[in-house]
Write a sequence for this structure.
């Protein structure tokens, strides 16, 4: 189960490898003109989840990349390694485990921490979509225009599948969610 993709795009070279359920990204920086970056979070759940095998998730991730790149976006896949850069990762992970939150739903919280850990030329944050969200009309040009306002914006009601926010907002929201967690174990805890 090994997928390797080398991407040459606007002067950037990236090597992405999926091997034994682990995503590794190596990217070299470029001085190419700035395109908006759509990020997603992917950390495989052993054996798959949500009615799909691990391989099915990998295929969907590849389709996600192609879909956004076709609309003029750069893409970036965040992983547990990005989430673990957040200073509160281990505290939040401990709380989620204490409450019996399953592997999949803990990863949903991790994506928020990964986005809060992003630092770039604009201070951090930016766009994030679930990897099952493929753009139909959201072009890079529209994305750049929307991104001028970096307040927290979710484009799908209560399902956090397409969001744009500053790094500070990406950090603020998961702390609010953690503050709302119950004190005792109950079923069905998620970031929605």
């Amino acid at each position: 189960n090994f997928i390797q993709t080398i991407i040459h795009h606007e002067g950037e070279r990236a090597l992405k490898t999926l091997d034994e359920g682990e995503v590794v990204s190596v990217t070299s920086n470029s001085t190419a003109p700035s395109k908006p970056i759509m990020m997603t979070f992917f950390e495989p759940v052993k054996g798959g989840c949500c009615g799909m095998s691990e391989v099915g998730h990998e295929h969907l991730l590849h389709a996600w990349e192609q879909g956004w790149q076709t609309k003029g976006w750069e893409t970036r896949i965040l992983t547990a390694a990005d989430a673990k850069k957040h200073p509160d990762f281990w505290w939040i992970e401990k709380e989620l485990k204490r409450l019996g939150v399953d592997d999949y739903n803990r990863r949903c919280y991790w994506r928020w921490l990964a986005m809060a850990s992003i630092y770039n030329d604009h201070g951090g944050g930016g766009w994030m979509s679930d990897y099952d969200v493929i753009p139909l009309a959201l072009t890079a040009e529209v994305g750049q225009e929307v991104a001028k306002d970096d307040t927290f914006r979710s484009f799908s009601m209560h399902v956090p599948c397409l969001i744009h926010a500053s790094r500070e907002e990406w950090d603020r929201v998961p702390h609010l969610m953690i503050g709302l967690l119950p004190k005792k174990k109950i079923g069905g805890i998620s970031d929605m």
User: Anything to note?
Assistant: The mean pLDDT is 82.
